[in-house]
Amino acid sequence: MTNKGIKEMIWYKEIEKHNFKKTECFDSVHFSQFGYPYSIFELKFGKYVFDWEQSSQTCRLLKTQKDGTILSEIKIKDANHLDEMVAFFKGGGK
User: What is the DSSP secondary-structure string of 44-86?
Assistant: First the structure.
């Protein structure tokens, strides 16, 4: 049982399953703290972007402008919520 407002971690295998694109960005501070390069994990659907944070293993859905400015966001609660949202954007629904 989870408390409302508390997100569960979304494991990397879920990100792989949905074919998120990984972009590595060298950040010496991040590397010194965690021991691995900072990476951006994204899955794009036009102006909507799923963004997974590797160190916290949390995900959010962003609505962006063409220049990348974030207009709004939704926190993805858990792996099931991620599956539902990705299916919605792919047109399948659940």
Answer: EETTEEEEEETTTTEEEEEEE-TT--EEEEEEE-SHHHHHHHH
Q: Which has the closest alpha carbon to 34: 42, 25, 46, 44?
A: 25
Model pTM?
Answer: 0.82
Domain boundaries, the chain: 12-90
CA-to-CA distance for 11 and 91, rounded, in angstroms?
Answer: 24
How does pLDDT run across 49-94, given as a tens digit for each residue? 999 999 899 999 999 999 989 999 999 999 999 999 999 999 865 5
